[in-house]
Specification:
The protein contains 20 helices and no strands.
Length: 552
């Protein structure tokens, strides 16, 4: 056998990309051309486990709030801890893969996810719950970028679109069915089952990873870039300090010393992170990409989309359970049609991005989501279930026409030497937007709940004839039910108090949706800051002319 025949390129049907490393080529030799599809299935299984975990907990939040006696400012850490930790882990993914190889990184990530899930299921304190969610988030941050990297390593150019489409549909379906899975778990057992509901997928992914995942490159070919520990540390300090400052300000006081200290640490950490990244030879996030107008203007849309996805997925299940008293399963099933809208809308928006000015697609998407938030701002405790589904469906149509055009436009703005930084920056902006969106809206919800409760209660006094009339009716009803006069008189006030609390909840949620609608109206004007993106549609051969570098 000749040396040429022994190489994977010589084996029929392999069609291995030129960028594939030696470890990937050895796997093709071992498994044959079907290896790429086996690996895609394994990666999709692991990603589904981590992405489902990102949204299943949202439906269980009312049960967790009741079990631990939490406020909204504390409960939001269930989502924020996941998003913030996954953001930081994403920036360390490239270093981990080049230093230890995809197999070791994948196995460690899945083990971390399994341990975090089990810890969440047996947690007895809020701190344990937050730590478990952070461990799940680190796992998601390590695994998600790896999937795209390995798809480019194993699939030829004419099959990458198909592979990315299959993988993307699976990832998009996770937020759609995650809340439903979480709702079923809560109704069947308790909120603890939510943390382990996705473990079967994780165990399957972990069992096949040692056989399918490529190892690191050969020692004499492997490069080990230094990890930007200082940059990641500064970013962690900044994010945690700022998120903690906002979340704790309601309890500590917005003008308290501890709040000022947290904000100061967060701002100093953020500025230090930017200055450090500018001078570091291997930055975790290269600030140079933000010098391109097309990137940062599209980045505003990306951050707004992150806020839209995660904040709405946080608020809507809370509203339908706390205000309309739907079961967790009903609250989760409500999100399925909206998720299916994204499955259909993503490919359409992706294809149109190459043919139409992305600003038109973004304008349509932003308008759809702003309209959806405006409609939700008029929600009441009696709003029909299917009407809510329609409004949520409209919001996901808007997201479908925001994410692909914004991501593609931002990445196209980067020159080749900053391409990796641009793709990492896009994920960073999405996750950070989601983390701060959930954090700030949860705080706003709690503050407006207190405001409306106090405002409504202030009007419930002896000068309010309507309140006295309703109190007398309730007392009579309780008396006819067999209750003695004094307890009936006292319990009638309790009924009115519960009605005030329910009305305050409705008004607080409406305020949050109003803020989201106004935010997207502001984001709409960011389109005027965006330059006209270049389309990637190739011209017919006869019409092609040499490119003028100055014109480009």
């Amino acid at each position: 056998m000749t040396a040429a025949a022994a190489t994977p390129h010589a084996l029929p049907g392999h069609d291995i990309p030129d960028m594939a490393g030696s470890a990937v080529r050895r796997r093709f030799t071992q498994f044959g051309p079907q290896y790429r599809w086996m690996l895609l299935g394994a990666m999709l299984t692991g990603s589904l486990a981590t992405m489902l975990a990102a949204t299943t907990v949202n439906v269980a939040l009312p049960a967790i709030i009741g079990a631990f006696g939490l406020g909204q400012d504390q409960a939001q850490w269930m989502s924020t801890a996941f998003l913030a930790s996954s953001t930081i882990a994403m920036l360390a993914n490239a270093w981990a893969m080049q230093t230890y190889g995809p197999r070791a990184t994948y196995v460690v990530g899945m083990c971390l996810f399994i341990v975090g899930s089990m810890m969440g299921a047996v947690s007895t304190t809020l701190e344990m719950l937050i730590l478990s969610r952070a461990m799940q988030g680190i796992s998601a941050g390590l695994l998600q970028p790896m999937s795209m990297f390995l798809i480019f390593q194993t699939f030829p150019d004419n099959q990458r679109g198909t592979a990315m489409g299959i993988f993307s549909i699976g990832v998009v379906l996770a937020p759609a069915f995650g809340p439903a899975l979480g709702g079923i778990a809560v109704d069947l057992a308790s909120w603890r089952l939510v943390f382990v509901a996705t473990l079967p997928l994780a165990f399957v992914a972990l069992s096949v990873a040692p056989f399918l995942m490529p190892t690191g490159e050969d020692p004499h070919l492997r490069t080990r870039p230094p990890l930007d520990w200082q940059g990641l540390g500064l970013l962690t300090i900044s994010l945690v300090s700022l998120l903690s400052a906002f979340a704790g300000a309601n309890r500590d006081g917005w003008d308290s010393d501890i709040t000022y200290l947290k904000f100061a640490i967060g701002l100093i950490g953020g500025i230090s992170f930017i200055l450090w990244e500018r001078r570091h030879p291997f930055p975790a996030l290269n600030p140079a990409i933000f010098m391109y107008r097309q990137f940062w203007s599209a980045g505003l849309i990306i951050s707004a989309t992150g806020i839209a996805i995660y904040a709405s997925t946080y608020l809507i299940p809370l509203f339908v359970q706390m205000v309309q008293h739907y079961s967790p399963t009903s609250a989760g099933v409500m999100m399925i049609p909206a998720g299916l809208a994204m499955v259909v809308g993503f490919p359409i928006a992706g294809r149109l991005t190459d043919r139409v000015d992305a600003r038109f697609l973004l304008a349509f998407g932003i308008s759809c989501f702003a309209m959806s938030a405006y409609l939700l701002a008029g929600v009441t405790s009696l709003t029909p279930y299917w009407v809510l589904i329609g409004w949520i469906f409209l919001s996901r149509v808007g997201i479908s026409f925001c994410m692909p055009p914004a991501n593609t436009t931002a990445v196209r703005a980067a020159p080749p030497h900053l391409l990796a930084s641009a793709t990492g920056g896009v994920s960073f902006l999405m996750q950070v937007g989601g983390a701060f969106g959930v954090n700030l809206l949860a705080i706003l919800l709690q503050r407006r709940l207190i405001f409306h409760g106090d405002h409504l209660a202030a009007g419930m006094n002896e000068a309010n004839a309507e309140m006295l009339y309703q109190h007398a009716l309730y007392a009579q009803e309780l008396g006819r039910a067999g209750m003695s006069e004094l307890p009936a008189f006292q319990n009638a006030f309790g009924i009115i108090g519960r009605q005030i609390s329910a009305e305050a909840q409705v008004l607080a949620f409406r305020d949050c949706f109003h803020v989201v609608a106004i935010w997207f109206m502001i984001v709409f004007f960011a389109l005027f800051l965006m330059p006209k993106p270049k389309l990637s549609v190739p011209a017919p051969p006869a019409a092609r002319m040499p490119i003028n570098p100055e014109a480009a």
